[in-house]
Amino acid sequence: MATETANPAAISVAIVGLGIAGATTALGLLSRGLSVKIYERAAGVHEIGAGIGMSPNAERAMLALDPRIHAAFRRIATPNTEDWFQYVDGYHDAGHGDGEAPLFKMYLGTRGFEGCRRADLLDELAKLLPDGCAVFNKELVQIDEATSGQKPMLKFADGTSVEADVVLGCDGIRSRVRRHVLGEENPAAVPGYTHKFAFRGLVPTAKARTRLTEDKCTTRYMHLGQDGHVLTFPVAMGAMINVVAFVTDRGAWPGGDKMTLPATKAEAARCFADFGPVVRTVIDLLDDKLDKWAIFDTFDHPAGTYVSPAGTTCLIGDAAHASSPHHGAGAGCAIEDALALATALEEAQAAAAAADGKEKRQVLRAALAAYDAVRLERTHWLVESSRFTGELYEWQVPECGRDPVKCLREAEARCHQVWDYDVGEMVDITRRLFAARLHRGVVLAIN
After folding, report:
1. Catalytic residue chosen out of the listed positions 200, 375, 387, 437
2. Domain 12-81+113-191+300-446, classified CATH 3.50.50.60, yes or no
3. Where do the domains of the chain lie?
4. By 3-state DSSP, what share of the chain in percent is helix, strand and coil, each rounded to 5?
5. How far apart are CA 253 and CA 190, in angstroms?
6. Residue 414 annotated among the catalytic residues of the structure
7. CB of 21 within 8 A of CB of 317?
8. Could you tell me what percent of the chain has a pLDDT over 70?
9. Distance separating alpha carbons of residues 95 and 399, to the nearest angstrom
């Protein structure tokens, strides 16, 4: 980690959670001169070993947030061997070739939607954080947030507490900060089961080449099927293939609060026994012991706001709008959040440079209100569209069924609504919203 340069006049920001959302938010704020401290419940930097892809909008947000973030991603991203995302019938045996009939494809562009391992990306981001920026073994218990005057106070399980001007919840799908912002009894305070789960694994490419075509080992594929689908794409510079095998589950999730349960390859094989030869081979390439990952999201009870009533705590990424992964856009959307919030807080710091405590609180409320306004509609849509897309890939949308033309039309329109998002325009709107809310807040205070 680098050396931290403190700015005594900076707005102090406490970030809860050191995942991709927390790390990118911290880097964006630090590059804009704010004072940042990250509080992580784990003993160190940790991320699951599954793969992740970054869509074009996410890469543009990285560049705008802090170019070092984008450079870190590109260092570990596995270049695509072709510029198309291939969608195939993974359910029926085509009777020729490798057994999978092509359905449609989408153009990704040069170096578009590349993948890496989550743990590798988080490690690269952590190297960019200043020494002492992150504090570990800090499990958040409570946030005390007065409606006026005092700074919010974070209280931890080890009995310690800290104050900051702003608290940012980057603590993921089971967010403690979310429950504080929305209220413990609010149904939107906790995510809901989507009735899908996934088996996840990484397959060495050398092993896969003994049983799959070279194309299936090096290209991003979505294998569609009835009530299930499988995503495969290369990571670790082509040394590994990331496999995510989704299954529809119409019952209740048996794990309770646990997001993952132990599973076996035999269980996965039973779930995909009716699929075609390629999917069955992919499943057979997985390790004997697997994890079964419950897909939860916030679709059933979306948050009406991402900002606390006191106006000094807000939510980012999965803590705000946990999405199913079918757009591959959850992390990218969190980076968009980070950019909008960094923009708003940079404006707030400039406005509060010579202000007393009361005025500083006003500008912070205006900044978080601007962030909330610019992100709610976009992120609510993403959660809805991701849920829909998962059903589309499993032939559960009556209007589309198995028709490849109709499926392509829906998938392409929705994917491009994610990929083509104008982050520069988002930044401009955030600045205008902040200025308008600050002016309105000052007028109300005078009146």
Report:
1. 200
2. yes
3. 12-81+113-191+300-446, 84-103+192-297
4. 40, 25, 35
5. 15
6. no
7. yes
8. 94
9. 28
Query: Is-same-fold flag (12-81+113-191+300-446; 84-103+192-297)?
Result: no
37 sits in which H/E element: strand 35-39
SS (H, E, C) 371-396: HHHHHHHHHHHHHHHHHHHHHHCCCC
pLDDT at 48: 63
**CATH tag, 84-103+192-297:** 3.30.9.30
pLDDT digits (tens, 9 = 90+) for 364-398: 999 999 999 999 999 999 999 999 999 999 999 99
Order the strands of the 153-156 sheet from edge to edge. Answer: 140-144, 153-156, 161-163
Residue 232 pLDDT greater than 90, yes or no: yes
Q: What is the pTM of this model?
A: 0.92
Look up residue 117 and give its two tokens: 């391992």
8 Å CB contact between 162 and 138: no
Q: Distance between CA 342 and CA 31 in Å, rounded?
A: 9
Q: What is the token pair recorded at 434?
A: 């902040």
3-state secondary structure of 289: strand
Average confidence score pLDDT of the chain: 92
Phi and psi at 100, nearest 5°, equal: -110, 125
Residue 6 has pLDDT above 70, yes or no: no
Integer Cα distance of 7 and 440 in angstroms: 29
